[in-house]
Amino acid sequence: MLITDREALKRFSCSHRVWQGIPGIERTKGGRTFITFYSGATTETYGNYVLLYKSDNEREYELVAAIEKPGKFRCFDPVLWIDPLQRLWFVWNVMPGEEVYGVICEAPDAEELVWGERFYIGRGIMMNKPTVLTSGEWLFPIAIWPGEVHEKLRASGLRDDDDPRSYVYKTADNGKSFVKLGGSAVKDRRCDEHMVLELKNGVLAMYVRTRYGIAVSYSYDRGMNWSRGEDSGLKGPCSRFYIGRLASGRVLLVNHVNFTGRNNLTALLSEDDGKTFPYSILLDERNGVSYPDVAEKDGYIYITYDRERGCNRKTLDEVYTAAREILVAKINEGDIINGSLVSEQGFLKRIVSKLGRLLETDRNPFEKRELSNEELAKKLILQGGNVIEESFALFPFNCTSVYDIDVKKVESLIKKFEDSGNSDEKLLAQIISIIRAAPKQAAMENPIIDVIKNYIEEHITEDFLVSELAEKLNISVYYLCHMFKAVTGITVTEYCNSIRITNAKHLLIRTDETVNGIAQKCGFCTAAYFSEVFVRLEKISPSEYRRIHKKEQLK
User: Fold this and answer.
1) Three-state SS string across 282-321, please?
2) Could you tell me the end-to-end alpha-carbon distance of the chain, in angstroms, rounded to an integer?
3) How far is the C-alpha of 362 from the C-alpha of 359, rounded, in Å?
4) String of b and e for 238-272 (b: at least 16 CB within 10 Å)?
5) Residue-level pLDDT at 40
6) Can you say how many angstroms the Cα of residue 288 is from the centroid of all Cα atoms in its chain?
7) Cα-flanking dihedrals φ and ψ of residue 11, to 5°?
8) Counting beta carbons within 10 angstroms of the beta carbon of residue 59, is it exposed (0 to 12), middle (13 to 18) or buried (19 or more)?
9) Which three-class secondary structure string do you get for 7-38?
């Protein structure tokens, strides 16, 4: 999913993009600037991908990474953040699924950027930077949008227990684990895009985008509960804003002022904890300027934003009339107080990325055409990742499809492809042609899923392999795994672990069996793996769980 190879990144260059927008920015200790935004397809839809640029001179920007998930998915609304440990967080959202993921670069000033493993942060959509509390915790603003927002794109990822709110997730261990706290259900909000500001009295103020401007909700217990949202008095054209505390202690707000739409993007300064904003500087008066993000370093404030994204157009000619720019401004607090640019190194309206016309060799994206098996194989291999999994994800199937496939032939081709180092385009094209040709039916209710579930429940105390189950059903392992997740929303392993952990919790509370004994009884291969899974799912060790809940039973 994370692409850093220079050759592979060429297909994401400006000459291949129709539109771009929704930027984020960070500035490192060594003076390097990172800017992210997203693009892909012709609008905000399936096929969106996230891009990351860097600059060491504040003028020339180089594409250094992209994030993409092939198939009926989109990666969007990226966030950049440098944490108190000076690590660079690169965060993005995936839809359908309502999932927030991140990767961390421990040394963002290094000549060669090295990224850690992708990790899951929380359920929902995160569109703004976290807040570091004075008590040391970090709060990540993640929202579950109301069902009608991007409903068609999200339908297969929504759950019955999704409660639309502007939530915060807390980490108290530098991002190793996250706990979902409370959320605010602000009336008339739109895409939430909330930010949290810790006031000087310790109260948390959550600012939320609404149809009428910006609402505010307060938490008096560090994020567990939030007051009913109310109008903050900070107007706005229903668009993303930025609010945060500067190193000086002042509060910075970047918003639209005296607007007639998304114009007059302005930086404002408050000296009374956000009650009033008497100082301001106009950043960009033009129409179509929006979605600011901020980074502060060495006394300067860096503000990125987009201008006339170019999405939601119907033809290429219409697209070409839009500016399609990502810009950055560099100011300091003196500029804002003065109301104009007076700093020596400051600047406004500097272009980071501007799109032109597509290459003549590129097909017109407004003319719908499916990629051939060979084209698709080449694209999947080029972008890397688990190519076979992505191939199966592109073409959903059901139990009828499974039995129309020559399972042994597919397995043989997959084995040959993997032996080739996952790089033989002809073999992959053959695999794609088979799974693509399988009959497709709309119904996703598969009786075979019940067979799989029953088998798992009957053998839950055994350490069986998924391949054994696939062999008994005479279907491909890949089909089994993808079909199970398509219907249930979770993997076979996650389903097994859920049942086993539930059984283990009963034994921990109701018996004096050792943790090792319980691990074996519940089907875990080792006690260490049992403990690892238990902590991951319950955020507490098996022994601690027993101590707490046995004590509760005695009350």
Assistant:
1) EEECCCCEEEEEEEEECCEEEEEEEECCCCCCCCHHHHHC
2) 50
3) 5
4) bbbbbbbbbeeebbbbbbbbebeebbbbbbbbbee
5) 95
6) 25
7) -75, -10
8) exposed
9) HHHHHHCHHHCCCCEEEEEEECCCCCEEEEEE
Mean pLDDT of the chain, nearest integer: 89
Gap between the Cα atoms of 254 and 484, Å rounded: 46
Q: How many CB atoms lie within 10 A of CB 320?
A: 15
Query: pLDDT at position 439, please?
Result: 57
- Spatial separation of the C-alpha atoms in residues 371 and 363, rounded to whole Å: 11
* Confidence at residue 376, expressed as pLDDT on a 0 to 100 scale: 86
Q: Are 392 and 376 in contact (CB under 8 A)?
A: no
Cβ-based neighbours of 428, under 8 Å, separated by 6 or more? 377, 380, 381, 387, 391, 417
CB of 326 within 8 A of CB of 351?
A: yes
Alpha-carbon span 165 to 548, nearest angstrom: 31
Eight-class DSSP state of 104:
E
Q: How far, in Å, are 81, 134, 180, 275, 435 from residue 138 at the CA level?
A: 12, 9, 12, 24, 45
Query: How many angstroms separate the CA atoms of 250 and 280, rounded?
Result: 13
In 138-189, the DSSP E strands lie at: 138-144, 165-171, 179-184
- Is the pLDDT at 233 greater than 60? The verdict is yes
Write down the residue that tokens 């194989």 correspond to. Answer: 377
**Cβ(195)–Cβ(242) below 8 Å:** yes
Per-residue CA distances from 107 to 59, 87, 458 (Å): 22, 6, 49
pLDDT, tens digit (0-9, with 9 covering 90-100), for 422-434: 888 898 998 888 8
C-alpha–C-alpha distance, residues 251 and 242, integer Å: 10
